[in-house]
Amino acid sequence: MKICVPPPSATLPRRALLAAGASLAGTLAMPGLLRAQTRELVVGGAASHKPWMDATVIPFFERKYNCRITYEGTRSLVNLEKMQTNRSRPYLSVVQMDDPVMILAARENLLERLTPERVPNLNALKPGTIHMDGMWANYLQPWQGIAYNTRALPNGIASWAELWEPRFKGRVVLPSLQNTEGLANLFVAASLETGKPPAEAQADADAGFRKLRALKPNLLTIYTQMPQAFNLLEQGEAWAIAGALSSFALERKAQGAPIALAAPQEGIYASPSGICAVRGGPNQELAMAYVNEMLGAELQAKLAGPTFSLPTNTGLPVPADMPQVPVHSIDWANVAAQRNAWVQRWDREMAL
Amino acid sequence: MTKRVDLFALSALPAVLYLLVIYAVPLLMLLTRSVTGAEGLTLAPYTAFLSDAFNWQIIANTLRVAGLVTLTCLVIGYPVAFALSWARGLAQAVLLLSIILPLSVGVVVKAFAWQIVLKRDGVVTAALMATGLFEEPPRLLFTETGLVLGAANVFLPFMILPIYSVAKLVDPRLTEAGATLGATPWKRFARITWPLTLPGVISGIAFTFSLSVSMYVIPSLLIGDRFQTLATLTGRSFLLMRNEALGSATAVLLLALAVAVVVGSTWFARRLGRAA
Questions:
Q1: Which of A83, A108, A228, A346 should one mutate to test binding to chain B, selecting the residue with the greatest count of B CBs within 10 A?
Q2: Are residues A88 and A196 in the same domain?
Q3: Does residue A124 form part of some domain?
Q4: A339 is a domain residue
Q5: FRET partner for B220 with CA separation of 20 to 30 A, picked from A23, A332, B106, B107?
Q6: Which tens digits make up the pLDDT trace of A37-96?
Q7: Whether residues A130 and A237 fall in one domain
Q8: Residues A233 and A338 occupy one common structural domain
Q9: How far apart are CA B233 and CA B174, in angstroms?
Q10: How would you label A278-309 residue by residue, b for 16+ Cβ within 10 Å and e otherwise?
């Protein structure tokens, strides 16, 4: 048997080769290690969420995962536009937006499915908060009522129907149907017009439009920018904003603005805040970890108070200061199917 | 001489390239998108848009507001431009600064400021009530009047500065000569000053009209969602309705209308100038 002994001269190059290989591997691995140290997650969301994102979510997550989060605050539809435009090379990893816009994103195949294996906290969510077989989930549930100026209306507002009273002439502000929070008013109006329960009245948009047309003399404006509307309310130019979100209105109240949020006797509307991972987005594992944290009890406990919202994690109790009136849900699938037609109709029927 | 001309032409090349890439190419893409359907070339987005009576109302809104803003700017800006050209020293510096400085303030900030000025207990309403002509405070905010006032404030420098650049070149001896020949102040203005300043007026109208016909943020903040213009509809078509064909068609229509009105008014003003 012939034993092949490498020539002495060959030993050194092999060692050198191994050393060089190890060095090369280390070099090649280094950028990865560096990247691991400076991992970045770009999260899209609502501009109005920036204060609590900066104060609570970002420091919490950055500290826990040794990464950096860049938050891009804008409108949900702009986030959708960003996802669509950058479909081939997404730069957003996670997006927090409203359910009706999530439906559009899911239909355009822009979302990465969330699974309990990658997002264990999905198992801890309330029923009805995971949508389209895990395309997105709700991390909080703010509610919608009527924000009002406490100087102009010291006795508050007891019913949605009061907005139609002549004393409100030119003092009511509504969100546009372009804004997600604008849709509740259509269903409130349909319910008032028909006398049907809110869930049933959602199918009768005609009645809703009919009733909303009757509100035109009382309208000051219809907004697309929420801060502008609250500016009007706080200055006393507007007396009421119908369909105002608790996450914005109660935060302004807590900051000392002369406003309050009424929970009318007919009930309030839940306006779920959704979170999704972007299909093919950078740092997928980190993105899933972020989604998981947002659905977890620890972070939701920190957020429910400052955002004046209901947590969706079953491990947390309903806040004690939640209004004791019925909470209605909106059929977002119906909204997604009808919204364009409704917006066109809204433009025509609510025009000056 | 030829070489110098060529060098001059070459010096414009960076600007031409920049405009081609930043402006002409996207514009061409927009135009292409507006005439492209699922089955190739089509004019369907235009016919669909123009066959709806409500959309003609949107076009009328756009042109009416732009026209009123331009007119307001001209009425206010023309005498200011002359005051600026007549002023000397510190007075001229202060005037120029007061016209140019507001350009550094963002449109959103200005629009919010107008919201405060126009509200029911704001200074404009207080002044109107002081005239005794109104029984109750008139509503200006979220009305067309409020929009025109606010937009005119934002675009006024674009009317004043072109007129000023021409007005300062007008020889005051010409009107003096007219006066010595017995021309009334109105006749001196109509026959001497106005024709001489017409190039500046035309430029001012072109600037102001182009800006106001396509304004998007100002109507959004000062009149809200109840008053549609071509610009707001274009934004909404892309962002909300996800209807690129409609958005491209309305954008092209907006551009065509703006160009037509600017070119038309220029031609008309020049004819008037020649006639004068």
A1: A228
A2: no
A3: yes
A4: yes
A5: A332
A6: 468 999 999 887 888 899 999 999 999 999 999 999 887 888 998 899 899 999 999 999
A7: no
A8: yes
A9: 49
A10: bbebbbeebbbbbbbbbbbeebbeebbeebbb
Task: Find the CB nearest B240 among A228, A237, A343.
Answer: A343
**ipTM rounded to 2 decimals:** 0.73
- Same domain for A259 and A278? no
Residues A214, A251 within the same domain: yes
Per DSSP, helices labelled H in chain A are 8-37, 50-52, 58-65, 76-85, 99-107, 183-194, 198-201, 205-213, 226-235, 246-254, 284-295, 297-307, 332-349
CA–CA gap between residue A25 and residue A19 (Å, rounded): 10
Give me chain A's average pLDDT, please.
87
Structural domain that includes position A292: 40-141+272-311
Query: What integer is the mean pLDDT of A153-181?
Result: 94
Domain annotation covers residue A234? yes
Domains, in order of start, for chain B: 54-275 (1.10.3720.10)
Interface of A with B (CB under 8 A): 75, 77-78, 81, 104, 170, 176, 178, 219-225, 228, 231-232, 235-237, 340, 343-344, 347-348, 350-352
In sequence order, what DSSP letters do the residues of A114-155 get, joined into one string? Answer: P-TTT-GGGGGBPTT-EETTTTEEEEEE-EEEEEEETTT-TT
CATH of the domain at A63: 3.40.190.10
**DSSP states of B78-143:** HHHHHHHHH--HHHHHHHHHHHHGGGGS-HHHHHHHHHHHHSTTSHHHHHHHHTT--SSPPP-TTS
Residues 6+ apart with CB under 8 A from B127: none
Residues A190 and A287 in one domain: no
| Cα distance from N-terminal residue to C-terminal residue, chain B | 38
- Tokens representing A270 are 């839940």
A8 in a structural domain: no
What is the pLDDT averaged over residues B159-173? 92
